[in-house]
């Protein structure tokens, strides 16, 4: 089956202000395609307010209705969405798609190393520039010296795979120099080998007290900070309505990246979606109907498999991220964690939103570190932010925790 390359992804702008932009994707199907597309849309700072998906197991048709930033780079978004679809070859102007036969090589890792004089909001401003340039932060180590200088180490990858070129490197340094201004002391970007990357890895395990008290993996019974109200989540599975699919019906509270969290879970379980519909309702409620099947093309009839999938979905809807402030001696440390996909991809824009929330709260960062850790049987991306309490926190701990949580959930 052939389709014009430009018709793989079509973006239609709204006729009236306030209406959503409509994104249509028409390409061959693959398990996890919905997750990959939702992740890209989330990375561009857009919220999905409605979605439809249908597939015959070979070809897939997906429509997203999205709202978000006015300065969204739609042409770049279209390019990234097309790249997420199965690879293609072209003949006579028609692009024919085929599944990728082998995984791509891991991207090169570069070390962005700079020092400058500290100021409020500095880390967020740098993070925002990197996001705009499509540079993904894999690891970061930030420290502040007693004389008010910061030493920042960012281990980054380039979505465009051009950071090895002088032009791309100079462009990145130019944008960062512009945002840092006269505060900059030195800045450099260099390609690092696997031995350097390995040395930068954080310990794979966190202290038991932190994993048990802060990142409890049990389903919460009562509402708490960092948890969506449990009565907002309803998950039912039905095997009677369809002869070949299991129907999953979900009702829950909306949050930033909701559809990504659901699709990520289904991708990790190797579940295929044949038909789905997602709608947002008044007062922040959402409803989803998903007709799914296992990789072998069969329904999910095993009660243990049903309970496992239902419990994981419920957990992802109740606690898509973990946010807490803990005491580290006399200081306060902000901890944020999100589960990593089995494909090793982390959640987009988490560090961006954390630093933005702290900047809006007027809270300074003394040091920061991003690492991946094993918690339970899963890999998590953990952000550890040591708050600067030199003159006392500008707001209380609970206020900081709540502000970061709301920013991450899109409720700010």
TrEMBL record:
Gene3D superfamilies from the UniProt entry: 3.30.70.260
UniProt keyword Transcription, yes or no: no
InterPro entries from the UniProt entry: ACR1-12 (IPR040217), ACR2/9/10_N (IPR056816), ACT-like_dom_sf (IPR045865), ACT_ACR9/10_C (IPR056805), ACT_dom (IPR002912)
Keywords: Repeat
Short name of one Pfam family: ACT
Coiled-coil region(s): none
Keyword Repeat: yes
A GO term for molecular function: amino acid binding
General function of this protein: Binds amino acids.
Protein name according to UniProt: ACT domain-containing protein ACR
